Amino acid sequence: MSPGLAPTIELLTPGTFNKRLPYRCNICITKGRPNGKIGDCVNARSIKHFLTQHLQSDRHMKALGKTPTCEGETVECQGLSVSDPQAGTLYDFRAEFGLWASMTNLKAFAKHSYWQNANSDEWFIRSYKCTSRCVQKEGRRPTCPECLQLGHPRDVARSPICQYNIDKYNDIHILNYFDIF
User: 76: which strand partners?
Assistant: First the structure.
């Protein structure tokens, strides 16, 4: 076995798990196998074939995409900044988002965490599924994939920010501006 496969593929004792030559993939984790997927190499001459077949499978590639890579330094996720262009649709509606967030009872009804930096008037969102650790990419804020997903058009931007409630909040804002009441 090559040293490059050592943390990913672990050869097990022959005959365990009802397999002739079992191996464990520590990346392919499922509910049934929380310690990793168990495969069989059948015989000693086909080890390379079965390991290559598993390492190139769609399931392994998908699981490999979910694991953090070592391409950069792992730092704490700072959440999604609405004022950052990587926020996607929320960046386009940042003024409306600020108005919506200031008029909504976020503590009582929101499943994600919202907060505002008072010095820069910048809003941040942290997903309730936030992994809290992410890889620092050069030139970008440290944001985990779960928090980045909040900027997708089908996530937070689909809420009242971009729909019919904007008109209601704009009307309230105009009334407050002219101090009619």
Answer: 133
Which residues lie below 8 Å from residue 38, measured CB to CB, with a gap of 6+? 12, 17, 19, 22, 23, 24
CA distances for 35 relative to 15, 57, 70, 86, 179, angstroms: 18, 19, 21, 35, 63
CA 130, CA 55: separation in Å to the nearest integer?
A: 28
DSSP, res 74: E
Measured N-to-C along each axis, helices 165-178 and 94-103 cross at an angle, to the nearest 10 degrees, of: 80
Tell me what the mean pLDDT of segment 112-125 comes to: 86
Block residue for tokens 């769609």:
58
Res. 164 pLDDT band, cuts 50 70 90: very low
Per-domain boundaries in the chain: 3-66, 74-178
